[in-house]
Design goal:
398 residues; alpha/beta; five-stranded mixed β-sheet; 29% helix
C-alpha cells in the first residue's frame, strides 16, 4: 500500500509510491474527459480527445480535438503552453498517437517539448498500435501512468466506445433505442375520439433522444416506421456537428414515398438500402430528390443487416442509433448486431402487453433468444426513466 503524507491524510486524499496526490490526478483527468467531450459531433471519425498541461500544481494549457481543426489535443495544448510545457505533466484521456496520419505523432511532440510525465486515461484501442505511444514516451525517460483510478479509465473507454468498436471491427457500434410503457407497449391505444398520441415519453426524454442523435453518426429505421409515422429522423439538439446525421432507411421493395418528410428534407443525408432495382423509375425519382439508393443483398426478405453495417463502416460511420419498430429491432437482435440498448420507460400502463407481432399464419412461433444486459445504468428524465446496458463487451477485440 502506498504511504500517505500527513497533509493528504488530513485532506482525505491518497498518495502513490512517489508521493503524488492521486486526487489531483483524478481531478485533472476528469477535466481532460470534459474537454474531450467538446468534440462530440465534431471529431468523428476520429476519437474525442482532451489534454490538460499542469506545472507546479497549476493548469497552464488545455486543448481538445476536432476533425476540421486537424491538430490533436496534445498539440493544441503544447502550442498554447510554449516553453512552459517543459517539465509539465500532461493529462490526456487517450494514449498519445505514435504514427503519422493527417498529422505527425503526438508522442514525439511531447518528447520534443520536454514534458516530465504523461497520464493517459486509456491505451489506444487499435490493436495495431495499442501501447506504442506509451512505450515511446517511456523510452525517452518520461514518466507514464495509465490512470484507471476512480472510474477514469471506464469513463475514457465509454466516451470513445464507438471509435474503439469501429477501429477493431470496421463496422459501427449499434445502439438500439426505444420508448415503452411500463407494461412493455411500444404504442399507445387510440382514445375515445379516435385520435392517437404520437409520443409515449415526455418532452424531457425526447430532448435526451436528440442529444443521443447528436452523438451518433447515423440513425437507422425501417420502411414500416416511415410509412406509419412519417418521421424526419433529424438531429434537433441545436448542438454543432461536423457532418449531418446520416438518415438510413431499410426498404426492401423501395416503397419510400417522394412526399415523405425524410425525402422532402433530403440534402444528401438520406441513404436507402434496398433489395429492389436501383435503376427503376422510382429509384431515379428518389435520387433526383437527393436520396442515395444503395442495392444490397437480401436476407429473409429484407436487406442484409450485416451487409448494411459493413457498408456504413466503409463510409467511416462509427455509431448507428437504431430507432425502429419491433420487426427491425427483433431482426437486429436475432442477428446479434446490437451492441448497446437504451430503453426509455414512461410511467404508463395501457394493458396492451407485448408489442412484438405474432408469427405469420401457418408458421410455428420461434422463441427469441434471451439476452442479458451488462453494465446497467439508469437515469431519470422528468417523469420517465431510461435503462441502458450492453449486450456484449465492446472493449474486447472479439
Amino acid at each position: 500500500m502506498p504511504r500517505e503524507t500527513a497533509e493528504m491524510k488530513a485532506a482525505g486524499g491518497a498518495a502513490d509510491a512517489q508521493g503524488r496526490d492521486l486526487s489531483r490526478d483524478q481531478e485533472y483527468m476528469a477535466r481532460a474527459l470534459e474537454l474531450a467531450a467538446g468534440g462530440r459531433g465534431l471529431a468523428s471519425p476520429n476519437p474525442m480527445v482532451g489534454a490538460v498541461l499542469v506545472r507546479n500544481g497549476k493548469v497552464i494549457a488545455e486543448g481538445f480535438h476536432t476533425y476540421e481543426g486537424l491538430r490533436h489535443a496534445e498539440i493544441i495544448a503544447l502550442e498554447a503552453a510554449g516553453e512552459k510545457a517543459r517539465g509539465a505533466t500532461v493529462y490526456v484521456n487517450l494514449e498519445p498517437c505514435s504514427h503519422t496520419g493527417r498529422t505527425g505523432p503526438c508522442s514525439r511532440a511531447l518528447i520534443a517539448a520536454g514534458v516530465a510525465r504523461v497520464v493517459a486515461g486509456m491505451i489506444d484501442p487499435n490493436p495495431a498500435v495499442a501501447g506504442r505511444g506509451l512505450k515511446e514516451l517511456r523510452a525517452a525517460g518520461i514518466q507514464v501512468d495509465c490512470s484507471c483510478t476512480s472510474g477514469a479509465c471506464a469513463e475514457a473507454r465509454r466516451l470513445n466506445e464507438a471509435f474503439g468498436w469501429w477501429i477493431r471491427k470496421r463496422r459501427p457500434l449499434v445502439t438500439l433505442k426505444t420508448a415503452l410503457t411500463l407494461d412493455g407497449s411500444l404504442v399507445l391505444p387510440r382514445s375515445l375520439n379516435g385520435s392517437e398520441s404520437r409520443w409515449i415519453t415526455s418532452e424531457i426524454s425526447r430532448a435526451e433522444v436528440h442529444r443521443m442523435r447528436h452523438a451518433s453518426d447515423a440513425i437507422m429505421t425501417g420502411i414500416g416506421t416511415i410509412l406509419a409515422d412519417d418521421p424526419l429522423l433529424t438531429d434537433r439538439s441545436g448542438l454543432p456537428r461536423r457532418r449531418p446525421l446520416l438518415r438510413v432507411v431499410l426498404d426492401s421493395r423501395l416503397r419510400l414515398s417522394p412526399k415523405s418528410q425524410v425525402v422532402h428534407s433530403a440534402k444528401g443525408d438520406v441513404l436507402v438500402f434496398t433489395s429492389a432495382s436501383a435503376s427503376g423509375a422510382h429509384a431515379k425519382t428518389l435520387s433526383a430528390l437527393g436520396v442515395e439508393i444503395f442495392p444490397v443483398r437480401a436476407r429473409h426478405g429484407r436487406p442484409d443487416l450485416r451487409a448494411v453495417l459493413e457498408e456504413l463502416g466503409r463510409r467511416d460511420i462509427l455509431s448507428v442509433m437504431l430507432e425502429a419498430g419491433p420487426l427491425l429491432n427483433q431482426a437486429a437482435l436475432e442477428a446479434d448486431l446490437v451492441e448497446k440498448v437504451r430503453l426509455f420507460y414512461a410511467p404508463t400502463l395501457v394493458g396492451l402487453g407485448r408489442s412484438l407481432p405474432g408469427p405469420p399464419a401457418g408458421k410455428r412461433s420461434r422463441m427469441p433468444p434471451v439476452r442479458e444486459l451488462s453494465g446497467l445504468r439508469t437515469e431519470n428524465f422528468g417523469p420517465d426513466f431510461a435503462v441502458e446496458g450492453y449486450l456484449r463487451d465492446v472493449y474486447r477485440n472479439r
